Amino acid sequence: MKSLIKYGTPIVLIIVLLGCSVYYSSNPSNLPATAFSVFPYILLGLIMMLLGFGYWFNRLKVFYLGIHILFLFLLLKGILPSPPSFIEIVLPYVTVVNIALLFVFKDGAVLSNQGKATAIILLTEALFIYIFFEHIIGFLSDLNLPIAFMFIELPELAVLLFLLMFLVFFLNIVRSFSTYNVLLFGSVLSIFLSLPLLKGVTGAELFLLTGAILLLFAVVYRTYAMAYIDELTNIPSRRMLKVDLMKLGNKYSIAMLDIDHFKKFNDKYGHDVGDDVLTLVAKGLERVTGGGKAYRYGGEEFTIVFPKKDVEDVITHLEDLREEISKKEYTYRKKNRSGDSSTQKLKVTISIGVAEKQSKTKSPAEVVKEADKALYRAKKKGRNCVSK
Q: Rounded to the nearest 5 degrees, what angle is found at the Cα of 77, between the Cα atoms of 73 and 79?
């Protein structure tokens, strides 16, 4: 269920918003008449928010996608006058190139060297199009492919390039899922779908509005993640733990655990291996059963909270978790001075201490202390065990 919510929520959001855009752009009469006069102001307000958030929160991709939506909006409203040939022939290619460029660059500060390089490239592109516009139109007009995309009225090659780029983004998301990137993915799709509708005001505005909303959700999620998700292990951080502890009722258990001999991993194999071990354990903790939720407490220490469960209810689940992690192996690849590499299997184990809310432990902080004492007892027993 946790995975379904994590992976499904942004996808459902994209489907719903894009579905609404497709439906209402095809059936504008189903929208209130006042909507057409309000949409431009809503869209412009969202764009200004995106530019501000992109700048202040160091979201380069959000900032420049916001710039591109603003550019399309100004074209749509005729504020930026342009010949029809630009919108019909050149703009689809410009959009594909700019989106690909933004996803090649890493996210970061708008005024970083990377951000400045992006701005210079985009300005150079605009200047090049302005100077050689007639030549570009002639060249692109001759690029006819022996295929036709009946569902979208754009140059065939531009659509093909976008689909290839879209496939690369999709495979990257499948390989390493990120809610932030999924929302950017949906925004890019919505922006591209607005292109053939730039002459039809209602449809284009709906798709641009959808793209801006998805970008806004991406910024909100990213800000939330920075505050409450541990960057290395990608599980909730200690700050989130403090928030969730305040929501607990009168019955709960808390487990404290850490990685056995973690200092030896760092000292012998280096901090990179240590980070990999932390990530490996965190992924295992995410699969804890019994309704538990895992957090990174700090260093090599983690916490699991079991709402509405006493110690006897969770012991079996913690034993299963400990055993599952002890069976996993981390493959360490070491390079010799000659340049050859050898692999070594590293075993990782954890020790766990667990405590429940009792009359003497009135607050979650006190239960955490009791669980920490139990963790110390587990280490004295020889590690790789659960103690209460």
A: 95
**What amino acid is encoded at 91 in this protein?**
L
> Rounded distance, CA 271 to CA 269, Å?
7
What are the DSSP E strand ranges found in the chain?
252-259, 293-298, 301-307, 329-335, 341-347, 350-356, 386-387
State both tokens at 358.
């009792």
pLDDT digits (tens, 9 = 90+) for 298-333: 889 999 999 999 889 999 999 999 999 988 877 776
Confidence at residue 7, expressed as pLDDT on a 0 to 100 scale: 65
What number of other Cβ atoms are within 10 A of residue 38's Cβ? 10
Does the structure show a pLDDT above 70 at 224?
yes
Between CA 284 and CA 179 the distance in angstroms is 20
| pLDDT of 147 higher than 70 | no
Query: Per-residue DSSP letters for 261-289?
Result: THHHHHHHH-HHHHHHHHHHHHHHHHT--
| DSSP designation for 236 | B
| Arithmetic mean of pLDDT, 328-347 | 67
Assess whether pLDDT exceeds 80 at residue 127: yes
Contact between 242 and 284 (Cβ < 8 Å): no
- Strands 329-335 and 341-347, sheet pairing: antiparallel
Average of per-residue pLDDT across 58-85: 88
User: In this structure, what token pair is assigned to residue 11?
Assistant: 């996808």
8 A C-beta contact, residue 118 and residue 105: yes
With vertex at residue 300, the alpha carbon angle to CA 297 and CA 304, rounded to the nearest 5 degrees, is 45
The per-residue pLDDT for 238 is 92
* C-alpha span between 312 and 388 (Å, rounded): 10
- Report the amino acid identity of residue 304: I
Q: Which residue has tokens 């689809």?
A: 92
Percent of the chain scoring above 90 in pLDDT: 23
* 107 DSSP 8-state letter: P
Amino acid found at 154: L
Phi, psi of 153 (to 5 degrees): -90, 80
